[in-house]
Design a protein that fits this description.
This protein is an alpha/beta fold. The chain has one domain (2-248): NAD(P)-binding Rossmann-like Domain (Rossmann fold, 3-Layer(aba) Sandwich). Helices cover 52% and strands 14% of the residues. The protein has 9 helices and 7 strands. The protein has a 7-stranded parallel sheet with strand order 3-2-1-4-5-6-7, sandwiched between helices. Helix 4 packs parallel to helix 5. The longest helix is centred in the middle third of the chain and has 29 residues, at 93-121. The protein is globular. The mean pLDDT is 90.
Length: 250
Amino acid sequence: MLALITGASSGMGKDMAKVLAQKGYDLILVARRKELLTDLKKELKTKVTIIDLDLTIEENVYKLYDKTKNKNIDILINNAGFGLFGLFYKTDLDTELKMIDLNIKAYHILTKLFLQDFIKKDQGYILNVCSSAGFMAGPRLSTYYATKNYITKLTMAINEELRIMKSNVHISALCPGPVKTEFTKVAKGDFVIKGADSYYVAEYAIDKLFKNKMLIVPTLYMKITLFLNRFAPYRLSLFVASKIQERKSK
């Protein structure tokens, strides 16, 4: 059994590696920071392969696939990603384009290529780490929300295609709210509500992935929030989101 995890050097990616290793999975761990991957490898008791690549570079995404396509991977976890707080007209364009390259293009490419392989052998799991942001618009975190909308809806559409095909391949979207990771440090902001424990979210996500759940929402708070958001007028939803992000921004 073999799983490939991107963004595995910290946060949920690191914790998902721990969860899967405990279940006996060998791992291919991908991230930019090789030293952190090396430290993680020492903690795990299954076979671990490290690949240090910057997946904001499209060429590296294809390079990752070429390196791993013949490894008989059972699980693909697209987890690498980041955000950026701030008013849209003020945020750095180059940083946002890198975000789009990582949060959308890398997910899209790896999902498509591995999905094609999984369908050929009629087995495999894909977990796309999305966000509760994938169901809303996010003033002051606009590009990040938009990227998560893309991946959440893409994952849902593919899930339905696979269901209609009666395929044994399964794809899920993990849509947590705030999680205690490096996200806020990278995004230059902070959470208003307390973030969920990263290991708990990772464990919950893996469990629901194996139960073929399309949308995985780990906490009761976010389940209620997303349910209520369905009935809120767009302007009210945008106003509330804007105020929350305003309080997050440093």
